[in-house]
Specification:
This protein is about 65% helix and about 0% strand. It has about 250 residues and is mainly alpha-helical.
Length: about 250
Amino acid sequence: MDADAEFLFVPSDKVLEIAHLQDAIPFDIPRVELSHRGKYCTFDTLLKKYKLNDPALKIMAPIIRGADTDRHDFSPYSAGLWAISSGLSYNILDDHQLLAQGAIIYDALYAWASHLQKAKHVQSSVERILVGLSAEGNLMNENTPNWVLDLKHLLQDYIDADLSFSLSDISRELDLNPTYLSREFPKYFDNMSYGEYIRKLRVEKAKDLLVSTNYKLTQIAYLSGFSDQSHFTKTFKEIMGESPSNYRKTAKK
């Protein structure tokens, strides 16, 4: 947006006055353009206004939104970001110093969203290489089209980021004909149709949330991309053979 931007910190009741005198852009206060809008935070407003379509920023958006609006159900990572951010502001009272340190945190979050979402916490670089080769080797062979692995990663990114998408969206992203993609998809994805595979990914995400959080089923249904709890429960039973509640009880024992 502006690599040379200068931030001015003034009392909240002086923001509009100083912005006018300095020909500056006020933000993150009520009744200005760059601020909260309903459930969306200032970060969302910036992405929309300046048409920032970087996939990593879209992945970061629900994390930041949840931390900034105290809605930690938006992303499993929101609570962690809020904890780190509030800790920084508690320890650092100088606004400019706080901004500099905060930039390191958000640069790190951007790097994770861009490159490291699939990274595993293993003990060495050799182990990381072996983990990656094992996972991708199960899917790829010399006759497998290049788009298959790209699609696998793309679908997982969308699921992890809780983004809505369709077969047409994916086809445009990969520059493939939707009919061709629909026909070829089962050959490389567990003999499942596109819709079946997406439901499987959503259930896998729900399984993780059932075990790692205390969220209610309605929250988990929402975070996993289901339209409502009823649809979530029905799909979960079809794939797992038991209800989400029973799975949670068994898995946590």
